[in-house]
Write a structure and sequence with these properties.
The chain is α/β, with parallel strands linked by helices. The protein has a single domain, classed as Aminopeptidase (3-Layer(aba) Sandwich), CATH 3.40.630.40. Helices cover 31% and strands 15% of the residues. The strands form three sheets. A seven-stranded mixed β-sheet has the order 1-3-2-6-9-7-8, with helices on both faces. Strands 4-5 form a two-stranded parallel ribbon. The two termini are 37 Å apart.
Length: 299
């Protein structure tokens, strides 16, 4: 199968592929999109700056060397405050909408209760995003224009990689606000730099998570597992280790590389990009040996 198939071209995302994929790794950034539809901004009750705080700003750039290393990089172009690709498709608050709903909605989740469904109800500040109720027709429209194209491309990349190599590791790349970086630490005054999420062991081989943690720790970064972020819809959907499909969520503390108030990169962004490149290189090279079944020795 051809990784350059037209199915991977769409205005909802960018997909940068290596000339030849040499490693069984796919990198995805579902929250780095920053293209805000004009009709969305007209409905919004908060300024653009408030909407942008939900972005995993510049994360696609931090992992931008993935294609050079021999692995594809998929990044959403649509913003998280418009459509959250790390949610189930109908994980929504029915009270947000006006008009007949397309189907029953999965509204009994902690994420929906917090206002953070597939179409978020609140901004990162906790303010309501919309002036009033959202037309129910927006559900299917946003699914068709954003959510489904992104996941169709991601599914194809994962399956094609598995077909070629016999295994696949999906790196789901994110960032976390510095205000959340000590939430999972026993020492509340100690900043956490990286959180590795594997759904508490269900989404990824522990060998790979151990490798990532050791490598990051050796670079002087403070790492936690699954606290406060264990993974969302992406790791739950694509992480099936028993089937040779692994998914690891990586959360980077934004204070390491950006001015969160000004939404600008810091000079240290280059350092973090080099570190993420090093991590991808290490985990990519080791993944074939770690994940592929070894032939039994002759008796």
């Amino acid at each position: 199968m051809d990784l350059a198939a037209p199915l991977l071209e769409h205005e909802a995302f960018s997909c940068r592929r290596p000339e030849r994929q040499t490693l069984p790794v796919v990198v995805a950034s579902p929250h780095s999109g920053d293209i805000y539809p004009a009709d969305f901004l007209k409905l919004a009750a908060v300024p653009l700056a408030a909407l942008r705080r939900a972005e995993d700003a510049f994360v696609d750039e931090l992992f931008g060397e993935a294609p050079r290393l021999g692995m594809p990089l998929l990044a959403a172009r649509f913003p998280r405050s418009y459509v959250d690709a790390n949610r189930e498709p109908y994980e929504l608050d029915p009270g947000m909408f006006e008009g007949p709903l397309p189907r029953p909605l999965n509204h009994r989740t902690t994420r929906v209760a917090a206002g953070l469904g597939m179409i978020p109800r609140v901004a990162a500040s906790g303010e309501a995003i919309y002036r009033g109720r959202v037309p129910a027709g927006e559900i299917e429209r946003r699914l068709e224009t954003c959510w489904r194209p992104y996941h169709l491309a991601l599914s194809r990349l994962v399956e094609l990689t598995h077909d070629v190599f016999g295994t696949v590791l999906l790196i789901d790349a994110h960032s976390m606000p510095s205000s959340a970086s000590s939430m999972g630490s026993r020492d509340r005054d100690q900043r956490v730099d990286i959180v590795l999420g594997d759904n508490h062991g269900d989404a990824c081989s522990p060998l790979l998570v151990d490798l990532a943690e050791r490598w990051l720790d050796a670079q002087g970064l403070r790492v936690l597992r699954n606290q406060p972020y264990a993974g969302g819809f992406t790791t739950q959907r694509y992480g099936r280790p028993a089937a040779g499909r692994h998914a690891l969520q990586i959360e980077i503390n934004r204070a390491l590389y950006m001015d969160e108030a000004r939404h600008e990169k810091l000079p240290t962004a280059g350092v973090i990009r080099r570190l993420m490149t090093g991590l991808l290189d290490e985990i990519g090279r080791q993944s074939l040996e770690m994940l592929l079944p070894r032939p039994l020795a002759a008796e």
